[in-house]
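User: quick one, fold this
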Amino acid sequence: MVVVEARPFLFATEYTAMIILGIIMLIIVLSAMCWLLFNLAVFALPLFAAVSVGLATTDTGAGPNGAIFLGLLAGIATLTAGQMVFTLVPSTLVRVAVAGLFAIPAAIAGYHATHGLAALAIPAEGWRQAFALFGAGAISLTALARLALPRGAGFRATPSDARLSGQ
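Assistant:
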């Protein structure tokens, strides 16, 4: 005599659960990478300056500690000078030039990052290029907006704003 035990069919087996969990984690990680890319876009020019000065310092024989120190100093000086010129100089032409200096490296970094992310999911090279160009434009505009807005500018009302308006 053979006893056959009926086992209920479950849709969510271990493999299905892992696939669903993998897709959810992929979406979370890609979202975090895009958030970082947009938040750090304004620092593309200072990073380029820091790496360039660090590599040039290494070639002169200053060693890794000197290269790191001078690279950090160059990056901080580039960011500070750019923000000071952008906020203090009243000339529109100078402000546009400084904004362009910050937006061009951000656009290049945005293009390559978006192209790399698009290569994960899009097989056609034409669509990859289209997404990469869109990403370059969006990230360069984000860098321009972050440079133009003062620190702490946002859309939230503070308690002091409510007191001033009489609410």
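User: anything notable?
Assistant: DSSP finds six helices and no strands in the chain.
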